[in-house]
Design brief:
With 186 residues, the chain is mainly alpha-helical. It has a domain of 89 residues. It is 95% helix and 0% strand. The protein contains 3 helices and no strands. The protein is rod-shaped, with a radius of gyration of 66 Å. 0% of the residues are buried.
Length: 186
């Protein structure tokens, strides 16, 4: 309350000085207005100090606390965002290397699979070639046997035609005895 009293005294003193100046110029001082205004100011300051001032001080303290909390949260969020940005930047920096590694691995896998496919194709081609050779050999044997059979059949036909003309009874006897010997040997 000492501050309020000091302020009131200061106001009254300055009001009195103002009143004296006004009186020297020939106008009368409205003392009752001056006193009313001083009392009104004193009541206002008393109400301000007792009622409104603590409420304003509490509001300002609460507001300051809220602003400080908001700033602290914003600072934490900024630090977290910077850490997250740094992490993602690191991931992006390593992404190129990871992609190169994956690409190299894919190329190796493709080369390995290509080699396996080519080896399988070579084995299949070799198997087909062997089968073709066997088939050709088999067909060649069959053709030879058929040719031999035809040659034998023609030779037999020729022999049947020429044999009666050129063979004698002794030749026939000799053929029969050779045939019987061969049958007995088997």
């Amino acid at each position: 309350m000492t501050r309020v009293a000091a302020v009131l005294v200061g106001l009254l003193w300055s009001s009195a000085a103002l009143a004296q100046e006004i009186e020297e110029h020939g106008h009368g001082v409205p003392w009752h207005k001056l006193i009313f205004s001083a009392v009104n100011l004193a009541i206002f300051l008393y109400i301000l100090r007792r009622g409104a001032w603590p409420a304003l001080r509490n509001w300002a303290a609460e507001r300051r606390g809220k602003v400080a909390d908001a700033l602290a949260k914003a600072d934490r969020a900024r630090r977290e965002a910077e850490a997250l940005r740094a992490e993602w930047q690191q991931r992006l920096d390593h992404l190129g290397a990871e992609l190169e590694t994956m690409l190299a691995q894919a190329r190796q896998d493709i080369a390995l699979e290509r080699d396996q496919i080519l080896a399988a194709a070579r084995r299949a081609a070799e198997s087909i070639r062997r089968d073709a050779e066997r088939t050709a050999a088999s067909e060649l044997r069959a053709a030879r046997e058929q040719l031999r059979a035809e040659v034998a059949a023609q030779a037999l036909a020729i022999a049947e035609r020429l044999a009666p003309q050129r063979l004698t009874a002794d030749d026939q006897q000799r053929f029969i005895s050779e045939f019987v010997e061969q049958v007995e040997q088997r």
